[in-house]
Amino acid sequence: MDRGAAIDGKASFPLLEALRSGFEQVGGGLLLTWQVFTRGFRGRFDLGAIVYQIEHIGIRSTAIGTLTALFAGMVLTVQFGYFMAKFGIAYAIGRVLALSVLRELGPVLTALTVGGRVGSGIAAELGSMQVTEQIDAIRALGADPIKKLVFPRVIATMICIPVITVFANTVALLSGAVVAKVVYAISFGEFFRHAFEAAKLNDFTSGIFKSVVFGLLIAIVGCYKGFRTTGGTEGVGRATTETVAISAVGVLVADLLLTQLLLTL
Residue 197 pLDDT > 80, yes or no? Predict the structure, then answer.
């Protein structure tokens, strides 16, 4: 009777159950972050594992980041140019595009596109190890799974996302300059002159700082979901799907908070 009432109560308050689960996952993610930075730098760490993860995460994700930035720069230039031409200021497209890309669109679009691939890959790898009890075997051998599995992936993602963002920013500005030249007859010199006049060092550094935070967030979500995977191959698929969704929402929420913080500094 009591068990049936508990089940009915749980079913009657799905919102409360969702909130409880959400707070539990946020707490688990924060705890995992703390463990990564307190255990990872303790003693010697495997530099080779970090280099391998940089190659696995970064180099293989460059293509999707480049493709996204290429078309994002073109679309934004067409959109900005269309409305700015109505006021006779199409020559300043470079100014608007540079600020938009460096501060917001470059870091966010890279985190959403590259992060989806990276986060789901991490969740799938660790989830498969979890359901096949490989992580338990690592513990049984006296090794620390956080230091051996999570730390290299977190550090590599925090390095790769900002590097890909810098590359994506460059591609977006170059593609925008080409569109401005072809569609609005704005020379490359004029485009980049306005871009460099508008963009300051803090615009670039704020975008890179956001990328580092986004990389940390994506890696932690992927590792947390991987370590919590249950239910065999079906559970692995569920963990990867949840990782992509949570990472995307987390990036957007973090972007709002970081933007407000950086604007007040």
Answer: yes
Q: pTM value?
A: 0.88
Residue ranges covered by each domain of the chain = 2-264
Q: Is 188 helix (H, G, I), strand (E, B) or coil?
A: helix
- Encoded amino acid at 157, one letter: T
Q: Is the dihedral of CA 182, 61, 246, 124 positive or negative?
A: positive
**What's the CA gap between 116 and 154, in Å, rounded?**
15
Buried/exposed code over 49-78 (b: 16+ C-beta within 10 A; e: otherwise): bbeebbebbbeebeebbbebbbebbbebbe
Instruction: Say if residues 263 and 237 touch (Cβ distance below 8 Å).
Output: no
Q: E strand or H helix at 187, and its extent? A: none
| Angle (nearest 5°) at CA 60 between 59 and 65 | 85
Q: How far apart are CA 69 and CA 87, in angstroms?
A: 27
DSSP class of residue 132? T
pLDDT band at 256 (very low <50, low <70, confident <90, very high): very high
Residue with the two structure tokens 């900005």 = 80
